[in-house]
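User: C-alpha cells for this one?
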Amino acid sequence: MKKRYEKNSDVPFLKRKGVSLSPATYGIDALGAMAQGLFASLLIGTILSTLGEQTGIDILVVIGGYAKEATGAAMAVAIGYALKAPQLVLFSLVAVGQAANALGGAGGPLAVYFAAVLASECGKIVSKETKIDIIVTPTVAIGTGVLFSIGCAPAIGRAASSVGGAIMWATELQPLFMGILVSVLVGIALTLPISSAAICAALGLTGLAGGAAVAGCCAQMIGFAVMSFGENGWGGFFAQGIGTSMLQMGNIVRNPRIWIPPILASAVTGPLATCLFGMQMNGAAVASGMGTCGLVGQIGVYTGWLSDIAAGTKSAVTVTDWVGLVLICFVLPAVLTPLFAAPLRRMGWIRKGDMKLEL
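Assistant:
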C-alpha cells in the first residue's frame, strides 16, 4: 500500500483524480453525452406523449410526462458519466441537474451543462480523500452544483434565451440569409464530434430558425447517406440516414472535400425551408438539431404543428406542410447532394472509397 501511495504521489494531483482540463473533454465528450441525456428524457418523453395523445393511449402520456420531468437529472448524470465521475459523484448529480434545469428556465440545458461539469470535477477532487467519503463527496458535489445553479443558472438561462431569441428574430427578419447561415452551421455541428442537439436545446432554437436547423441536419445525414451509397450500401445508408453523419468524420479529416456537397445542399434547403415553405420547429428545441436521427426532427416539427393548432395560431396541418417537410428533409438532400458531388468526382476531388465506412 505504501509503494502504491508513493507511486501515485508522483502523478500530478488533478491527473490522479481524473480531472482533465481539456477542450475536447468538455466540448466534445461532455456536450455529446448531454445530448444523449436530453434524448433519453425530454425527447423520448415528447415522442411518447405525442403518440399517446394521438392514439388515445393515456399511459403513454403519463410515461412521457415522467420522462420529461427527469430532463435535468438525465443530462447531469450523462455529463458525469462522460467525465468518468465516481459513483457517489454520479448519483449526486441528479439533484444538481434538477436544480440547474429548473432555475435556468428556457436556457436550462446550458445551465445544467456548466453546473454538472463543475460539480463533477469538484466531486472527483474530494472523492476518496477522507475517511467519511460517503458524506464529504456528495456534500461537495451537490453543494457546489446547487449553489452554482442558484447563483448563476438564471443568468445563464437569460443569456442563452437572449442569443436564441436574437437568432430567431433575425431569421424572421431575414429568412433568406439566416436560413442559409443557420442551416449550414447547425448542419456542420451535427457532423462534427460535438452535439448540434445540445446546442439547439441550450439556445432554445425553435420557430423558423429551428426549421432551418432541421433542414441543415437533414442535408448532412441524407446527403452523406445517398452520396456514399455505392461504397456503403444499405447498411451505411441507414447508419447515416437515421443514425448520424458523424460517422463520416474520419473520412472528412482525410479528405475535407467530401464535405462540400452536403454543405452546399444545406445552403439550398435552409432558405427554401424558411422562405418558401415557412417550415417551423415549434416542438422541443432539442429536435431542431437531430435531423433525421430516428426521425426525431420530423416528429418535432409535427408536434409543433399540433401545439400551434392547440394554441389557436394554426388552423390545421395542410398538404403544403407535409410536402415541405418531405422535400426539405428527404427528397432535396437526396437529389442535390449527388448533383453537387458529380463535378467534384469528375475533377478528382472526390474519389471512390473516400467515404467508405467500417461498419
